[in-house]
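Researcher: Structure prediction, please.
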Amino acid sequence: MTQSFKIVDLAMSVWKDFRSSQRTLILCNVYYKLAEAWLIVPMIAMGLAAVLTLAGHTAVSNWDVFAFLLSPMGILYAAVISAATVILLLFELASIMGLASLADTDTPPGMLGGLAAAFSRSGRIAVLGIAILLALVIASLPFVLLALLTYRSFLSQHDINYYVTERPPGFWFAVSIGLVILVGMSVVEIILLVRWSFALPVLIFEDRSSIASLFTSNERVRGASWRVGISLLGWLFGTTLLGIGLEAGFRLFAGFVLEYSGDRPVFKILVLFTVQAGLLAIWSFVTLTGSALITRRLYLTRNQELGLIQHEKVNAPRRSQSFGWSLAFVIVPLLLMTPVVLWTSIRQVMADHPPVKVTAHRGHSRAAPENTISAVRAAIDSKADYAEVDVSMTADGVVLLLHDSDLKRVAGDERKISDVSFAEVKKLDVGSWFGPEFVGERVPTLEEVINLSKGRIKLNIELKVYGPDSRLIPEVARIIRELNFESECIVTTFDYDSLLELKRLNPRLRTGLIIAHALGDVSRLDVDLFSVRANWLSDQVLRQAHRRAKEVHVWTVNDPAEMLSFMKRGVDNIITDDPDILISVRNQWVSLPASERLLLASRLLLGLKQ
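Model: Predicted structure follows.
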């Protein structure tokens, strides 16, 4: 019995295991990926739709997502989705271990034999996944509570935008505590996962119950935790670096190919898409298969060190190569469909769209203090299509422009806007923080801004509904109606119920839901447009919205490359702090010939920098 640990010996053993059953391992990986793409993911989507329907929703967005997830139906949904993800991963790992074990026996490593390792113990694998997930959640709860306590203690006195923008000492103290909490939680969960790393092979090969497998794994790993942890985490770290390297190398290669692709680049573009998909598939296969084989080999080595009898009993039916390769013939047509799908994506990106509309965020907030008359004037001067402004209500019911719930960030006054009268607000200077030329700038009312904007620029009026006061919605509806401004504005907010109420009060208004995150098919919600956080917008959401003739606006985009990317994807409106740059990028894009648009669209879909 040897206690030495040699990484080279481990690597050679794992490589031998792979070589012994490589064909069936590859086939197994392909089957699981097809099952995920064509069965598991659609089932999850249908399950979410069913749960939302039972909860009385079409879709939920923003803070309603958290309210839904904390409800009984939401907790059930989150638990089922999380458990299904973990269990599916364990099933695939179990199949790989089963195939590797059969390679060491007289039983040929047929496809069904590997699958039998997982499915003959499917109930126990499912319980194991649920037990691991539940234990990790319980272990995380103290850290989550500490994070909430830190937030309430240091970041709740003022509007969160004040802390993010000004970053006072309390902000950095809270961030430091948060990092410590995050590191602590990560260390605890890594320790638990290392201790339980032998649970799956114990369950498969020693025919133990799920809970017994966890306890047995903890006992076996004790005394070898560093070895097991370094091996598994090192492999994951190495494959992560491999993925980064493959992506960087592919981007260099694809950029070179597209640079010299000539006037007819379609074939080369389709080949590049195929190569990219292949590299991603190879990386995924290497990562998962290596993790399973390393875990199994560490398990066998540890058993040998402890003098335990090797147990690798797998219910292996007769080998059926015809079964495996028959399914392979089903896979080939699906793979051949890939270029068609990719070409469809290119055509979607290349489709003619009206020039994107430009919205100046909080007025032209790079040229003047946000949400002021000066900012709206600057937006008009820049030739932006819209100026986005935020409206709140004072204690005496006046609607004015203000983003935060208090005046701390823009005026140095710690009071909430809902506690201050309009006369008091008009005394405050909200321009000197931006620059000396704006000293004396005051908070404007919504009526003042509408009168300035009429016939010169459209407005995106965002409702800032803070607390239970519901006077803002009818007052905004009244102001727009009396000033006959419906055709020159849209009204947006994060709160869907507020938009329904606004539409009821003034059916002529165009309303838009602002989305930072959501569950379900948001395109079915009763609004005219969606204003979506840039890094949340997916092609699926974009397609669904356009299919229902609803506009998609995206916020807040300040990088020229990102602006160009969203134009190619076909968004209707981009919200930016610097409309001058966006207008310049838009003009350049619409002036390009079709061949250059094709190349640029291909670079976008390949993930290359412009």
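Model: The first strand starts at residue 59 and ends at 61.
Researcher: Thanks, that helps.
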